[in-house]
C-alpha cells in the first residue's frame, strides 16, 4: 500500500476534502492507497501553538507517496502565522519547487471573457515555489510605532530559478505546447535580471519552442486580453500566486482551479488554488470541483492516469449538465454537486 | 505663465505626446501654460549615460506646475536601467506618493467581460509610489555564476503607507464613493502586516465608508469576477503596478488607461499606464487616447476642470463613433484618431 496524507485544514477545506475522498473511494487507485488523516490547521495551531509537529516533514518525505491538502487560513490567527508554518513549511521543507497550476476553461458557459471559449483559455502556470517572496526574509523595526519600517525580502538563486524554468520548458516539450512565457519585473528590480538571463539561457536548449518575455504587469493584462497567446508561463513565487488566481477567474472562478506542488525527488502536495473562504465555510455550499480536479492531478502524478481521466470526464459531464453549485450558476450543495459527479463516474464507467 | 515639462520619452511616447500637445493647443488652459520639452529617455541615456541631469528633480519641483510624460523602456538598454534613473527617479525624487490610476469602462463595446457594462467597471487604484519594491534595495551576489543569489527588498514605512491609505479614503469621501479595499499579501509576508494594521486604523476615521481587505491574489481574481464590487483600491507599489495593468485590460486595453503621480506639495507627473511598446513604435498606429485622457487628468489637477471635461467628452464621442485605432476595433492611425477627437472637441464646443 502507498500512503497518502490527507490534510483538510481550515474553513472550506473541511467541506471539500470529504468529497474528494468519496470520489477516490470509487476508483481503482483506492485499493492501492492508504489514507492517513492529519488535523494540521488553525484549530490545532490555536490549541497547541504548533503548525507541524517536529519531524513531520521528514516523515512525509520518507513514508508518503503524496499529500492531499484542503486549505489554510483562519481569521482567528493573527497574521495567518499558521499558513506559513503549515502550507509554506511543507512546500519549502519538501523542496516542492514547482507549483503547477493549470488554467483550462472546461466549458463555454463558465468563461467570463467575451468571445473566448474553451479553446482560447488553456495555459499552465509554473510558479516557483521554494523561494522568492516567501522565504520569510526581511525585518520589522519599531513595530506599531509611527516610525515603523517593515522590510520584505525576495530571494532568488540561480539553481532555484533554473530548475523551475527548465521544468516549464520540459513540460511544454513533453505536451506538445509551443510557447513558454516568462513573467518578471526586471525593468524595475535589478534582482529579477537573474530570471531573464536564466530564462534566455535555458530557452536556447529548446529551439523548437517559442520563448517570450513579458513584464508581469503586461502579462496580467495580456492574460485577460489574449489568453489564447499563452501555453506555459514560468514565473516567481509571488507573481505565480497572483497570476494563478487571475487564471482561476478566467476559467470560471476559484471553484475550478486545481494545483500540484511538485519535485520528482520528493513527496508531492496537491491543493485547490482557492483558500479557506471563511465567509463561505460551514454552509455546505462551496464548490467541490477544484478539490476533485486536484484529486485528479494527484492520481495522474501517482500513475493512475485512467482514474484521473475518469474524474475529469465526470466533472466535465456534471458541468455540462449544469449540475453544479451556486458559484457556477447551479443550485446544488457541496454534497449534491459531488453526488452528480459520482453519478457521471458510474455512467461513464 | 505656469510651466509644464513635456517628456515624450521612448518608443510610442514619441508618437502620442505630439497628439496630446495638438489637443492642448486648442484649449483655454494653453494660454496659461508654457511647455518646455525635455529629451530624457533611452537615446540620451545611451549617448551620455545620464538619465536625469544633476539638479533636474529640484528644478522641476521648484519651477514647474506639472510634468507630462510619455513612456520609458527600450530594448537597447540592458535591464532598463534608464527607466529607474528617469521615471522612478522622478516619482521618488518628487515624492509623488500617490499613483492614481482610474479604471473606468468608457463604452459598452470596449469591455472584455461578459455581461459587464460601463456601470460595472469604474474603480480607482491608489498605488503607493515612493517605496515598496521600487526602492532599489537588495543585492546580487556572484552575478552570472551558477551560485548567483539575487535579493530584492521591499521597504514600507508607517508614514509612507499611512499617507497613501489616507489619500484613498479622502478621495472616496470627496467623490461619494463608498468602498475602499486594501490589497496586500500579509498572509505570506510578515512585513505586510503594517499595511493591514494601518489600513484598519485609518478606516476608523471614515466610519461612513466600507473598508474591505483582500489578499492581492484574491483581489486580482475578484476584479475580473466582480469589478462592480470596487470603488477605491489602496495597495503597494508593486501590486498597484500589476493591478492597474489588469484594470487597463478590463476597460479596453492599454490604449485607454491614464495615470497621475501626485503629492499636493510637489510637482505632479502625468503618464499613460502603457509603456513604450517597442513592437508598435514607429508605425504611427498606437492609440493616442490614453495620452489624451492623461492630459485631461493633468488639466483637472491644475484647475482647468472645464478643459478636462471637454477632452473627456471628445474622447468619448470619438469612441462612440468608432473613430478609433486598430486596438479598439477601428481603422484609424494615431494622427487620424486624434483628428477625430479634435473634431468632436470643436463640435461639443
Ligand atoms: C516602466 C516601469 C518601471 C513602470 C513601473 O513598473 O512602475 C510601469 O510599468 C508603470 O506602471 O508605470
Ligand atoms: C495561503 C497562502 C499563503 C497561499 C500562497 O500565497 O501561496 C495561497 O494563496 C496559494 O496560492 O496557495
TrEMBL record, chains A, B:
Its cofactor is Mg(2+); Mn(2+). PROSITE patterns: IDH_IMDH. One of its GO terms (biological process) is L-leucine biosynthetic process. Keywords: Amino-acid biosynthesis, Branched-chain amino acid biosynthesis, Leucine biosynthesis, Magnesium, Manganese, Metal-binding, NAD, Oxidoreductase. It comes from the Bacteria. GO terms for molecular function: 3-isopropylmalate dehydrogenase activity; magnesium ion binding; NAD binding. Pfam families: Iso_dh. Its EC number is 1.1.1.85. The keyword Manganese applies. Residues 3-341 form the Isopropylmalate dehydrogenase-like domain. Belongs to the isocitrate and isopropylmalate dehydrogenases family. LeuB type 1 subfamily. Homodimer. This is 3-isopropylmalate dehydrogenase.
Amino acid at each position: 500500500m502507498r500512503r497518502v496524507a490527507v490534510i483538510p485544514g481550515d474553513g472550506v477545506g473541511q467541506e471539500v476534502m470529504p468529497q474528494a475522498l468519496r470520489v477516490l473511494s470509487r476508483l481503482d487507485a483506492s485499493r492501492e492507497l492508504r489514507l492517513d488523516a492529519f488535523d494540521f490547521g488553525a484549530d490545532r495551531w490555536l490549541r497547541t501553538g504548533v503548525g507541524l509537529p517536529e519531524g513531520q516533514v521528514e516523515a512525509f518525505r520518507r513514508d508518503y507517496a503524496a499529500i492531499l491538502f484542503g486549505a489554510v487560513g483562519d481569521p482567528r490567527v493573527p497574521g495567518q502565522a499558521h499558513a506559513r508554518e503549515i502550507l509554506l513549511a511543507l512546500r519549502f521543507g519538501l523542496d516542492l519547487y514547482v507549483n503547477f497550476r493549470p488554467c483550462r476553461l472546461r466549458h463555454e458557459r463558465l468563461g467570463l471573457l467575451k468571445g473566448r471559449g474553451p479553446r482560447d483559455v488553456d495555459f499552465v502556470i509554473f510558479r516557483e515555489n521554494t523561494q522568492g517572496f516567501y522565504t520569510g526574509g526581511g525585518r520589522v523595526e519599531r513595530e506599531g510605532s509611527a516610525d515603523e519600517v517593515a522590510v520584505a525580502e525576495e530571494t532568488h538563486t540561480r539553481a532555484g530559478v533554473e530548475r523551475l524554468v527548465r521544468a516549464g520548458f520540459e513540460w511544454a516539450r513533453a505536451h506538445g505546447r509551443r510557447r513558454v512565457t516568462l513573467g518578471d519585473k526586471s525593468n524595475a528590480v535589478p534582482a529579477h535580471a537573474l530570471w531573464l538571463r536564466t530564462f534566455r539561457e535555458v530557452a536556447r536548449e529548446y529551439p523548437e519552442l517559442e520563448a517570450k518575455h513579458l513584464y508581469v504587469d503586461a502579462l496580467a493584462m495580456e492574460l485577460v486580453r489574449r489568453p489564447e497567446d499563452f501555453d506555459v508561463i514560468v514565473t516567481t513565487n509571488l507573481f505565480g500566486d497572483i497570476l494563478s488566481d487571475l487564471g482561476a477567474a478566467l476559467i470560471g472562478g476559484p471553484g475550478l482551479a486545481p494545483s500540484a506542488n511538485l519535485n520528482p525527488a520528493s513527496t508531492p502536495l496537491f491543493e485547490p488554488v482557492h483558500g479557506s473562504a471563511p465567509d463561505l465555510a460551514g454552509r455546505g455550499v462551496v464548490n467541490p470541483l477544484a478539490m476533485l480536479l486536484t484529486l485528479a492531478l494527484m492520481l495522474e502524478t501517482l500513475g493512475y492516469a485512467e482514474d484521473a481521466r475518469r474524474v475529469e470526464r465526470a466533472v466535465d459531464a456534471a458541468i455540462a449538465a449544469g449540475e453544479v453549485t451556486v458559484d457556477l450558476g447551479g443550485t446544488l450543495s457541496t454534497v449534491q454537486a459531488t453526488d452528480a459527479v459520482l453519478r457521471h463516474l458510474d455512467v461513464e464507467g
